[in-house]
Q: What sequence folds into this?
């Protein structure tokens, strides 16, 4: 019976580790999704000259970027709030995890005009996101080891105290 309790404690520690790991990976996963989505946005707006609601509703309707940025933006644009595109962009990007909120905020004033200035700004933002992803991967590697150590040592200490 003690061994069963010890196994359950270790399983709980493993579950805690997986939950903490999933939460800490959200900024990295979101940055990767937005990196791809910004390429689609640049092609649609700058090259193909398609309207933004059309791009948001069709090309950027799926994935993690859609959940955090594109769908809320589309809903605000379709809503009857009367806000301009830059104001809607600022409000939606303000809800993103740091530092992505600051990286993407600069695109808002350039969205209505489109053109080459927007394309350059999107490319600069994509470069910033790439740098963030590099830093985040190295930080995640260290954090994963620390989280595993804390979960495992906590479970072992609890097992020793209860036995």
A:
């Amino acid at each position: 019976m003690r061994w069963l309790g010890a196994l359950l404690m270790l399983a709980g520690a493993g579950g805690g580790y997986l939950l903490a790991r999933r939460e800490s990976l959200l900024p990295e996963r979101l940055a990767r999704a937005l990196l791809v989505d910004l390429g689609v946005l640049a092609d649609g707006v700058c090259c193909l000259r398609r309207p933004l609601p059309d791009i948001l509703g069709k090309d950027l309707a799926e994935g993690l970027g859609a959940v955090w940025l594109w769908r809320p933006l589309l809903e605000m644009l379709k809503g009857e709030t009367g806000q301009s595109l830059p104001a809607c962009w600022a409000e939606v990007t303000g809800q993103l995890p740091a530092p992505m909120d600051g990286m993407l905020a600069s695109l808002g004033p350039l969205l209505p005009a489109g053109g080459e200035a927007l394309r350059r700004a999107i490319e600069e933002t994509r470069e910033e996101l790439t740098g963030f992803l590099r830093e985040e991967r190295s930080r995640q590697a260290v954090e994963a080891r620390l989280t595993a150590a804390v979960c495992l040592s906590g479970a072992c200490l609890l097992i020793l105290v209860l036995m």
In short: Residues 86 and 109 are 5 Å apart (CA to CA). The radius of gyration is 21 Å. Residues 115-162 form the longest helix (48 residues).
